[in-house]
């Protein structure tokens, strides 16, 4: 698969992955109009894509789905296998086991190992277990509980029974071997043959046939449709199914750019997203046609300063002496239906490049000065961004001004700031827009008869309230079919060359617009073209940030960075997979750009090594530089998710002062005069008593906009800091870390679990209380002040949680939704009453000292009777 993907040839000159190869529509099929070397899309050019998509299907089948663990099934399997082993061991009675303890111990150990292996294999490959059960029953029937003669005589009456038992064992071994061979071929060998074997005649093997006239064609793109024969697991027979691809192509006739693949087999996919040279690279959304299992592919940037491999860690982990490197990855996750073992699957699409090299490249490129972070940003397109400035795949509404429609937002976040109302991801399109008023309207196709407006204003006439018999239909752009040319995409310019304009039809109640069949076709077409959403008057949605966008534009659009700092014994790809699963289930908005800060986290046995290296000055300095690069890239708000030991890493850097001058400090509004001192423009704390902060008001320009919107100045705001089962010292957090953190961050959240097994061993090894294992109100003992931290107790949760209870923030639905509210909406725990319930905690003297929040959910074992 990697060989089919194009590599990154340059750093700043590389086009983003969502770049489109537009294929102009030709009204005449002349060779002069065809680009030199261009191959028209056909079945032959689509066969490699078909093989890759079949490989995806086989891979899901090979790795299997997660299943509920059944204790009864494990016990029953172990009993059956132990019984079979007992029957086999009856024939070994000539060995005096009572006087041979070493031999007895060896036999017992081998027996236990064999039972464990057979149980594991039988649970995965059920036919192996079925053969074993059948053989056990046959042995009981023919030997009456014996495999060999107890007396050891060959002339015993039951000598024939012993022969039959041996035959049963031999047949069992043969069947087990055949079963394992078939499974190996279907799950390992055959998928590789489908993907890589050049000798496989695809047309003959799958009986591929061309569909000369597709059932439906796209309004905007080319359509290729064919059929092939595949195994239908629902009906247990071979059946012929159709496959269609609608979208953009490269010069070799392969899917490239925006496209939609539809395979009508039972486990085939309906995949819509970005393709590269015949392979879906994401971002994309996919769903199995028959099962409904859904998948999502998103992109995540990373900053790595470890010498470890991307997919593994080393005991002697160390920081890369060359400094941090930047890159990006695509991660595919299960989001609905059954979840598969091999997902999340991470593929590095922007290989890590040293920051020093990126910085030098930016300095050498004087014509287009960039920043080092522009490299990973160039890959961070979302699914919505991929659709921007492109027409809809199945069709779209068009107006006179632009032949293409941007995707409409389904939800809009509106925030109150000191400078007025602010909408992340949007830029004010008119300078006279009132910053204190926002008008949000629903936009829908006019034929639905709902209020809101028209997607396309072309030649359509607005209907009056009194005119209930007529409904205007928006102007559509349809590909020309002159000269027998096939359907193609709309040209990239605004001209209408090669396009037939469909006029406006008014359908009256009397049916004068045409026959019933034409009306049903138009109705079906309009249903496909339905596109509804929200728009903000006076604001323009901005979705693209590809590294070449100016920092000022990114700042004005309100782009925010979400930085995930993983724990120890966590490889880069593992951290990306965990964050990707959270984003896929939470559907975070496009203006939030995700990143992973990967530090040298060592292995399972290298706990103290990870703690020493992670809390070093070099790692803290790299984290500081990463935050600075985010600020220079135009980000003005950053959210930090710190899990396990990652919280210790960030808190250590904060405590050492590595973020002074980088993160925006909050203004002190209430403090005792003896504990603060002003030196220049900064406020330095002399103590920790009743210090209250507020966000500093931003300076305004003459136009009424803040300086952060006008130019690249100032610092970056730490909007939220979330501690997920943190492996940090409780006493140090109360004494120092909180007081440093609250200077920068107005929203601190702690998720703690009293039964966290990993943090239990951390307390045993470190001989200190862990912050993430004590869900209680945080109180500063010298003054009795309750710290402004939202403490969320997750001890009662029991869904999608493993036995260690340390790493489940990205799978538990309650936790995913709660993190969405924290990061996207900025809601405190008191504002999340629909999900959280508060309980009071008490001090040693019995007085109430604060609140701790728990989730409003029933345990998984509680059901209706």
Automatic annotation (TrEMBL):
Keyword Transmembrane annotated: yes
SUPFAM superfamilies with a match to the protein in the record: alpha/beta-Hydrolases (SSF53474)
Keyword Kinase attached: no
Region span, Disordered: 453-499, 505-524
Composition bias, Low complexity: 470-492
Keywords tagged on the record: Membrane, Transmembrane, Transmembrane helix
Domain of life: Eukaryota
Record Pfam families: DUF900
Transmembrane parts of this sequence: 74-92, 104-121, 128-147, 167-186
Name of the featured protein: Alpha/beta-hydrolase
